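Re: weekly structure request thread

Next one in the queue (494 aa):
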Amino acid sequence: MGQYLLAIDQGTTSSRAIVFDRHGRHCGVGQQEFTQHYPKDGWVEHDPEEIWQTTLESCRAAIADAGLQASEIAGIGITNQRETTLVWDRSSGEAIYPAIVWQDRRTADWIARLKSQGLEKMASRRSGLLLDPYFSASKLAWILDNVPGARRRAEAGELAFGTVDSFLLWRLTGGKVHATDASNAARTLLFNIHEQRWDEELLEMFDIPASLLPDVKDCADDFGHSDEALLGVRLPICSMIGDQQAATVGQACFEPGMVKSTYGTGCFVVLNTGKRALKSKHRLLTTVAYRLNGEVCYALEGSIFVAGAAVQWLRDGLKLIGSAAETQAMAESVDSANGVFMVPAFTGLGAPYWDPEARGAILGLTRDTGIAHIARATLESVCYQTRDLLEAMAGDGANIQNLRVDGGMSVNDWLMQRLSDTLGCHCQRPQVTETTALGAAYLAGLQLGLFDSLEDIAALWQEECSFSPKMGDIDRERRYHGWKRAVARVRSDA
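Done, posted below.
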């Protein structure tokens, strides 16, 4: 058996594949960005074929970059953007509609009607989630109701639903396997996280035929084999897990109370709560961290819809910067944001506000405001949003003194120091910041027997750099109060 693991990390703005060795060391990478489609206000779509092609090409590129033959790969792990919804034809494998992305808010009015009927309490009790267009269920229902013939075909068993992991698995196995894992199922608003099954009442509420749904497996499990024609050899697919749960594994947050924060397109803070599915009093999500050998580890999660995406907007939308990397030097070039606050509510506000109708704003502009101030305020918005989440977790009883950070934005030293200052807690950055892909690889290795236990995986985690608060308490609270005032200005009920 080979000693290398291929991790597929299919994200919101790019598809990436990374080859790791059995010690968690990065050996080769392939990555391709793909197009974001915004057909209407609040709508976000991806082309399923572009997702598939960029993923496949990234896999081939990663193996080549590692200087390996595909036969040296022991197995494949898959991690993915969650909640993004696809429906495809079981015969052809072709999607019947573009992928509706997790950021998409087109079903906000429908969700509001369900809330007005008093259904959120039941839905939350069963799924651990809130009624929000963020999750897959309303997106799936929209496709069935708006694509001609879709509902009839679904009821006839001709169509399949899946989040991106399921779609990739279907394509990788040549249509032989229709499955997901417990972590992705837990993000659909159709899955009972306590009983670990698709929930009949939730399916009825959203009018979803059960025939559409994939089988639900452990995060480390037998997911079939890749078609030989794709990579030149049949490879076992040994893990699937949602991206934020994968980062939790990659950060070795295996003990209750451990917490990680991932900075990519959005920002996601996950707190391990062990065997207890803790219900938040502050509108955080109760979710599945991972399921292994049928045993569930639960988590509390706070979701921020826009983090790195705000920097992309500065680059691609406003064209104020040429690259994301420029923002660190720009932020350092000024003493402060000069009273400017950027609230990146482009697709509404996530936790703890859950306001799909909120919209973004840059506040506090004066004639003295320059591009550097706006860039700094954009980076600081990531810190303030993270504090919103940690404040909510503290309200639910968490005592967070240490935060493990990862994702593309975590390599920005200035931002990580500002994060530590804003939170008033210690932040640790690991040697491998691509923890999402690493988590998928670790779970594949666990399934293959390359690792004996989670303890073996935890022993591989190493700190690259740490950041401790340097800002005084008065300054910290003054700045955060300014942020809260800015958020209040953009709320839909303001």
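The longest strand covers residues 295-304. The chain has two domains: 4-243, 252-430+462-494.
Next request, please.
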